[in-house]
Amino acid sequence: MAQSTTLDEPIGGLMEGVTDSLNSDLVQSRATGEPEWLRNRRLDAWASYERTPMPTTRLEEWRYTDLSRKLSLDALTPMEWSERAFDRESAPARMAEAMEADHESSGHVVEIDGTVAHVDLDADLAAKGVVLTSLRSAVEDHPELLEEYLATRALPADRGKFQALNAALWTDGIFLHVPRGVRLEHPVRVTRWLSEEGKALFSRTLIVAAEASQVSYVDEILSDDMEVQSLVSSAVEVFAGNGAQVQYVSLQRLGHGPFHLSQQRTIAGKDATLDTLNVNMGATTARLDLNAQLLGSGANSDMLGLCFGEGDQHFDHNTSQDHVAPHAYSDLLYKGALDGRARSVFRGIIKVHKGAQQTDAYQTNRNLLLSEEARADSLPNLEIEADDVRCSHGATVGQLDQDHLFYLMSRGLSRTEAERLVVIGFLGEVLSKLPLGGVVEKISRAVEAKLNV
Amino acid sequence: MSDTPILSIRDVHAKVADEDTEILHGVDLELGKGEIHAIMGPNGSGKSTLAKILAGHPGYEVTAGSITYKGEDILEAEPDERSKAGIFLAFQYPVEIPGVSIANFLRTALQSREEEGGELDLFDFQDELLARMELLGMDASFAERPVNDGFSGGEKKRNEILQMAMLRPELALMDETDSGLDIDALQVVADGVNKLHQENPDMTVLIITHYQRLLNYLKPHFVHVMVKGKLVRSGGPEVAEELEARGYEEFKTVEA
Lengths: 453, 256
Ligand SMILES: Nc1ncnc2c1ncn2[C@@H]1O[C@H](COP(=O)(O)OP(=O)(O)OP(=O)(O)O)[C@@H](O)[C@H]1O
Ligand SMILES: [Mg+2]
What we know:
The complex is a heterodimer of chains A (453) and B (256). Chain A has 453 residues and is an alpha/beta fold. Chain A has one domain (26-401). Chain A contains eleven helices and 20 strands. Chain A has helices at 24-31, 36-51, 67-70, 93-100, 123-127, 135-141, 143-149, 161-169, 402-409, 415-431, 439-451, and strands at 77-78, 107-112, 115-121, 131-134, 172-178, 188-194, 199-209, 214-223, 231-240, 245-253, 259-268, 273-280, 285-294, 300-309, 314-323, 329-338, 343-352, 359-369, 375-384, 389-399. In chain A, the strands form two sheets. In chain A, strands 1, 4, 5, 7, 9, 11, 13, 15, 17 and 19 form a ten-stranded mixed β-sheet that branches. Chain A has a ten-stranded mixed β-sheet with strand order 3-2-6-8-10-12-14-16-18-20. In chain A, a hairpin with a 2-residue loop joins strand 2 (107-112) and strand 3 (115-121). Chain B contains nine helices and ten strands. Chain B is globular, with a radius of gyration of 18 Å. In chain B, the strands form two sheets. In chain B, strands 6-7-8-3-9-10 form a six-stranded mixed β-sheet, sandwiched between helices. In chain B, strands 2-1-4-5 form a four-stranded antiparallel β-sheet. Chain B has two domains: 7-94 and 174-255, P-loop containing nucleotide triphosphate hydrolases (Rossmann fold); 95-150, no CATH class. Chain B has helices spanning 47-55, 79-84, 102-111, 122-135, 153-167, 183-199, 212-217, 238-246, 249-252; strands at 7-16, 22-31, 36-40, 60-69, 72-73, 87-90, 171-175, 204-208, 222-227, 230-235. Chain B is an alpha/beta fold. Chain A binds chain B through residues 402-404, 406-415, 417, 421-422, 424-429, and chain B through 52, 55-59, 78-80, 82-84, 88-89, 91, 94-95, 97-100, 104-105, 108-109, 112-113, 146, 163, 167. Residues 16, 23, 41, 43-49, 59, 92 of chain B line the site of adenosine-5'-triphosphate.
């Protein structure tokens, strides 16, 4: 790729994506008053951001998502951290409804516009040393853990344009630490709300589950519909120590308008189980980058995903099953149902490193098109450097055909009811593998709501 | 047969919606309330096409003629409206619906029959479902299996009749329900249908079949022969016996 140099291009950097409001002044101001290690991490991240070109469709990983058309960084102003109170009574309807459905939890966090506004944690768990807090307070209260884990081992800033941007500009987020051997009976539930349009919001999640601990975590993000685009950047780092059992669930139910960018890295230690479920229902464009690293031998990862798109929604899933250690197992199942002119992309790679003998790794992507104009692209991939492995991948794209609809309607179901039944049945396979309380109901209702529009 | 017929088909011509070739070339048929009729005929003669048209399949277009059900023209009605009005089609080739259990499917179907705002009583539903499954010799665990997904041919047909028993139609169209059933299953299913007919003697049944066997159990009042998109002969049960003995040869030469 030829690069023409102009006089006003700064030395050593392309500066792509640096705007009037997303610039080094902003990084400086975010770093003010922070401990040195963190300030340096931000500044390094920003330098990396400036150096890295904006991804284009010429890159395989961005081939189907044209950022130059889908994202207008120039039009965005950064969401600032600000002291907030959360009052359940006056919560927006969509948010209240989502929280209503959250029965049985070990703890709850509410984040509003990139600022944690409320945290509660079961007192017994707190007494056992469980930490659930905002990332900002964790910087003060648990500096050693943060320095060890934040934006360095899982999502280091120099591994991608947007990874760098988030590491440089995050305002707040959630930190969960589960000490050795502690098991949480109920999920930790997080409700994140975006209220403003035209904003760029950067938030991070850091989950550290120590040896033999157990936790499930449901991370829900919501907003109302918006006329003007907002960018929501979520960076999620999950560590499961040896023998730990961790489930991370992301429910993306943003309204129409926002661009959601979710970058996730999970790292599973020896004999650990680290499962993920990514649900994409909302946003105008949603991009997921998920790298599941099986770092310890005998590690296990189920990677589940589902999306349901309508209108002009665009979902891009980019996954990697990264087998470093031998005797590990990963099984990915992503399903997408698409109506209207919605579009989904699935690009998944199973990467088996040299020493990772006796790997079991599977990958399945299935899509159901409900309309003529919907489209699904599926690009499964294998990269295997070990010789004693079991791997498979498969992808299908099917159409909800006239005969299916006729069969259901001939029993008295309306077209909408018939579609709902088929879609829920199709996506239900994914949900049945991770039946967390409240999650299935929320997704069913979200599907219904979308079919009724 | 003094009442107005429940179904009256007049000179119906039909074709596949986006093609030109005509499949039905002028079908006339009247079904009186509570009667049992059978249509027999060679492969490809248009029997399933007729059944699907009656249930409102959007893939076919009626180009001439009329179909009235209970005195009303139903050609414009959607399949779900026809179902709610009491028409039921047991499919020759039932469709698989992965991930949707039979119980859930039937609950949704019955719920959609409730008046606006009405709620299906779930306990009654459960009792009724179990009773109907027993009637048809089906194990209770069947209700939790996804509709037709991985079912054997016989299981699919039994499931069609289970749906019919639950939805209690006034006009039941049974398209080759007997094919794929073993002799014992055929007997169970036929007994089930007879039971439904006893429960509701006003239920009208149109059986499409290739075999006399089913008709020995479900005694039709009238038998019709369809060849090349037309009904070429109508009569009493003896017609089926003649066909069993002589086949369709004599009709095939008839002008289509
Ligand atoms: N959707 C379609 N597209 C094209 N041709 C069709 C379609 N449906 C029916 N046909 C044709 O119409 C004719 C009648 O088909 P139909 O299925 O009604 O026959 P049938 O009498 O039910 O046969 P069988 O006894 O084998 O079930 C056949 O030639 C068939 O190929
Ligand atoms: Mg047929």
